[in-house]
Structure to design on (721 residues):
């Protein structure tokens, strides 16, 4: 048995930072329109916020608890991880702000300007002054900090301004704080000479311009915007608790005021005295301080993109209109259509609307007796929640598992749970030790003659009509009896007592799905040893489970060819001689977030293909309730293989992981066809692209397979170098 060393693995946290670096590369990439690049800066910021609140916060907790054991793959202790993370994060943020300044300068040449008070003309200055007086001043609350009024517990991620004031009569300086109101827009659109121009000013600059009006009788010496990020890793101490909902509501209140783990301050207004004071109050290390060369919290760029960007067609991507499969068009009876055949949906290339209408039609249909559904994340104004509420109020049997532990959606999910309960739905919260991450709907309907028919929807993504426009996911609408029987047993398992059922087609976690995958990889090894044609292709968000990684290493050493399409964290290192020579890892960052989980095993031509709500992560295998379901229809299987094939030969937005864990773009060679997989998948789904590469064939009989082999050789050469 091969012994695998720490250098054979990527650390999970550093691998995540590598993923966010790839997001940042999309902001740097001048092939992207300007506003799209601006949006990627916002995505990078939002990602880093969550990383610090959860992953970094968890490491801090471990250090405070005296835990200093190395993690099980790359072998780094919590202290070593914190040090490495801090160095890398500081480097990335520096690049982020250099990129921001460059993009802002380019936007200025396109008549979109970010202005400070000194740049305003008289009309604009009068406008800002009036806006401050009528909209901003009434909302502001100055907070004094002195011996009698200690430093307040500021909300995590709230933007604040530290103000140093002095009084000529007293001759000493005082400190006050002003919170930038989150209830107001972060930026203000200023009057311009014509509609071709857009001049913008940040809310904190508006406040600072007139901040002396808050401190009559004092002189404002300096102002410094800052933001505190707090630990939001939320442990659920549920032993002895009989009310999960109340427990989570209690923990949510703690999250907003957790221990400070990061402080951001603005470079141009930096006051060393104020900085030292904040650092001391928050008990932060120097490496936890981010002095940024620009506005704090670039997530406000989402608002710029949504409000300003849409007015400039040349600065945003062309909208790709989703397709509706024939038979599922608006106005069609979806139940009749699904009775005739199963439908595979690939969002957002296929519209999510049929899924919403499937549930809405079930809610209104007098022949529908019951609707059962799991909900992990839904949109703010969810039409699915409305349909389920209508169904319950009309007397249908509605059972909904609402996962209250969906991170950062807990509060929203609590509200939905209460609303559904009031409507008469039976709401369950699953198991307190596990998250229910499965995506499944079951509709029970009476057909003519009194026969009961079960309709099932299975998916890799959430029932969220908003994110379905941005996330790539697979969904299946089916009446297959084995899948329907499994769906029925699955909901009974969740809502009642009893052991896990025996499945016809499903595999589920915790535990059983992990064993299934390990056996499938082992079967591929055995078949390869006999026939020499072993092949595994797997697509997911993240790969962290050590037992799966080592089994893939075993398969590679046996000669099985393995392609992994992994958007985010990947603790596996490909291309290591004698360990992972036959493994290739591709990451695609593009306009859509790659979210689908797909697993292909050649099986000597049997070609088993599965979709799942689960990644190959330990948490998905052991700490969540997940579903893996097979793709049985030959046409559906062929479509998914084509989609995977296109992603494996992407030479525009794909990066390949090298043996040292770093990533490089897969470059388009001179004369080579341009393959931007997301664009071509959209064309193919709409029936407008036919040249699909057959990268699943064993022999390099076409350009695409040769390209895959060339990239593998290139990876090996980089390893040698």
């Amino acid at each position: 048995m091969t012994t695998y060393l720490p250098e054979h693995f990527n650390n999970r946290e550093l691998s995540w930072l590598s993923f966010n670096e790839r997001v940042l590369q999309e902001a740097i990439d001048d092939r992207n329109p300007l506003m799209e690049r601006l949006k990627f800066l916002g995505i990078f910021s939002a990602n880093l916020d969550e990383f610090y609140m959860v992953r970094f916060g968890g490491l801090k907790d471990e250090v405070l608890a005296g835990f200093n054991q190395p993690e099980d793959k790359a072998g780094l202790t919590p202290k070593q991880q914190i040090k490495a993370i801090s160095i890398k994060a500081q480097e990335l943020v520096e690049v982020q702000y250099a990129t921001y300044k460059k993009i802002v300068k380019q936007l200025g040449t396109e008549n979109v300007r970010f202005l400070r008070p000194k740049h305003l003309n008289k009309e604009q200055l009068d406008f800002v002054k009036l806006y401050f007086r009528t909209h901003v001043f009434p909302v502001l609350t100055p907070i004094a900090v002195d011996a009698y009024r200690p430093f307040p517990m500021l909300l995590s991620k709230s933007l604040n301004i530290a103000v140093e004031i002095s009084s000529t009569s007293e001759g000493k300086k005082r400190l006050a704080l002003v919170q930038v109101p989150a209830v107001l827009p972060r930026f203000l659109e200023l009057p311009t000479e014509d509609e071709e121009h857009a001049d913008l000013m940040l809310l904190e600059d508006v406040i600072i311009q007139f901040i002396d009006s808050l401190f009559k009788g004092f002189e404002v010496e300096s102002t410094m915007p800052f933001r505190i990020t707090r630990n939001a890793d939320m442990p659920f101490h549920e032993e002895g608790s009989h009310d999960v909902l109340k427990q989570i509501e209690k923990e949510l209140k703690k999250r907003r005021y957790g221990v400070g783990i990061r402080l951001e301050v603005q470079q141009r207004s930096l006051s060393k005295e104020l900085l030292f004071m904040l650092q001391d109050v928050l008990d932060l290390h120097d490496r936890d301080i981010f002095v940024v060369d620009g506005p704090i919290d670039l997530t406000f760029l989402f608002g710029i993109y949504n409000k300003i960007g849409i007015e400039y067609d040349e600065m945003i991507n062309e909208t790709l209109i989703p397709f509706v499969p024939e038979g599922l068009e608006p106005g069609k009876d979806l139940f009749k259509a699904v009775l005739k055949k199963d439908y595979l949906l690939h969002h957002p290339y296929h519209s999510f609307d049929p899924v919403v209408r499937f549930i809405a039609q079930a809610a209104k249909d007098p022949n529908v007796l019951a609707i059962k559904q799991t909900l992990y994340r839904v949109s703010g104004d969810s039409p699915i929640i409305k349909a389920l509420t209508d169904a319950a109020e009309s007397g249908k049997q509605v059972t909904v598992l609402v996962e209250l532990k969906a991170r950062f959606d807990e509060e929203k999910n609590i509200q939905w749970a209460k609303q559904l309960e009031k409507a008469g739905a039976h709401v369950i919260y699953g198991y307190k030790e596990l998250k229910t991450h499965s995506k499944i709907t079951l509709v029970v309907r009476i057909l003519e003659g009194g026969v009961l028919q079960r309709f099932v929807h299975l998916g890799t993504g959430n029932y969220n009509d908003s994110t379905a426009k941005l996330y790539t996911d697979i969904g299946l609408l089916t009446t297959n009896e084995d899948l329907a029987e499994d769906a029925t047993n699955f909901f009974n398992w969740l809502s009642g007592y009893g052991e896990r059922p025996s499945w016809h087609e499903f595999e589920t976690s915790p535990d059983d799905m992990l064993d299934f995958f390990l056996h499938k990889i082992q079967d591929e090894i055995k078949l390869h040893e006999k026939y020499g044609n072993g092949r595994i292709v797997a697509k997911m968000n993240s790969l962290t489970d050590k037992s799966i990684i080592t089994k893939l290493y075993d398969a590679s050493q046996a000669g099985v060819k393995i392609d992994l399409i992994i958007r985010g964290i990947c603790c596996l290192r490909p291309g290591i001689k004698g360990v992972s020579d036959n493994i290739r890892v591709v990451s695609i960052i593009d306009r859509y977030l790659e979210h689908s989980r797909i697993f292909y095993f050649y099986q000597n031509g049997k070609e088993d293909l599965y979709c799942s709500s689960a990644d190959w992560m330990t948490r998905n295998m052991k700490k969540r309730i997940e579903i893996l379901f097979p793709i049985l229809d030959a046409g559906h299987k062929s479509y998914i293989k084509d989609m995977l094939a296109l992603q494996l030969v992407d030479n525009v937005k794909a990066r390949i992981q090298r043996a040292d864990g770093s990533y490089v773009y897969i470059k388009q060679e001179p004369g080579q066809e341009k393959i931007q997989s997301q664009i071509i998948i959209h064309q193919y789904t709409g029936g407008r692209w036919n040249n699909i590469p057959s990268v699943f064939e064993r022999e390099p009989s076409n350009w695409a397979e040769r390209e895959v082999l060339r990239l593998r050789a290139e990876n090996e050469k980089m390893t040698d170098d």
